[in-house]
Amino acid sequence: MQPSLWLALAGAGVLISFTPGAGAINTMSNSLNSGFRRSIWGILGQQAALVVHILIVALGVGVLVASSPLAFNVIRYAGAAYLVYLGIRQFLHKPDLDQEKAAALRNEPAFSMFRRGLWVNLLNPKAVVFFLAFMPQFIRPEQPLLPQYAVLSATVIVIDILVMWFFFAAAARSFQRFTHDARGQKVLNRTFGVLFVGVGVLLASIH
Questions:
Q1: Which uninterrupted H or E stretch holds 127?
Q2: How far apart, in whole angstroms, are the C-alpha atoms of residue 177 and residue 28?
Q3: How many helical (H) and strand (E) elements, i.e. helices and strands, does the chain have?
C-alpha cells in the first residue's frame, strides 16, 4: 500500500473509531466496572468481531448480506435486541456498596468481557455494509490482495484499540468518583443503560 493511501486509511480509521457507538459505550462500561487495564479484554473482543466483518467482506459474503433484506434484518434486529438487553440489565442493576461484591465485579473473567465485546460488534450488520463501502477505496485489485487486506486490517484494528483504550476507557475513569455511593452508582447505571438501549433502538430504526 502506498504511503499516501495508507495515511488516508489511517485518517479515516481515526475518525471512525472516535465516532461514539455501542463499542465505545461497552468500553466505558467495562472500564468503570472492571478498571482501565482490564477493559482491554472487551476491546479485544470487539476487534475479533471486526476481523470477522473484514473477512466476510473480503470473501464477498458482505455483498450477500447487503443484498438480502431478510438476512440483513435478522442480524440487525438480533444485534439491536442484544444491546437493548444489555441496557435494561444495566439500568435495573441495583447499587452495591458491598466491597466483596464490588471486587467480584472488578474481577469479571477476561473471557466474559471478551465475549460480550465480541457480540456487541459482531451483531452489527451495518459494520459489514460499512466495510463493504469502505474497504474498496483502499484496495487496488491489480495488486496482490492478501497483503493489502492485512495492512488495512492491522491499521484499523490498532487504531481502534488505541482510541477505545486510551480515549473512551480513560475517559470513563473520570466518572469513578460516582461509584462510591449508591446515588452515584444509580446515576451511572441508568445513564449507561439508556445509552445501550438508545444505540440498540437506533440500530433497529435506521435503514
A1: helix 125-134
A2: 14
A3: 11, 0
Cell digits of residue 5: 493511501
Looking at the whole model, is its pTM more than 0.85? no
Cβ proximity of 94 and 188 under 8 Å: no
pLDDT score recorded for residue 115: 94
CA distance 172 to 170: 5
Q: Give, rounded to a whole angstrom, the gap between the first and last alpha carbons of the chain.
A: 33
- All 3 cell numbers of residue 141? 485489485
Q: Which pLDDT tens digit goes with each residue over 3-53?
A: 888 888 888 788 778 867 788 888 988 988 888 899 999 999 999 999 998
To the nearest 10 degrees (0 to 180), the angle between helices 110-122 and 69-92 is 140
Residues 6+ apart with CB under 8 A from 196: 22, 25, 29, 83, 84, 86, 87, 90
What does the alpha-carbon distance between residue 204 and residue 11 come to, in Å, rounded to a whole number?
29
Q: Is 54 buried (19+), middle (13-18) or exposed (0-12) by CB count in 10 A? A: buried
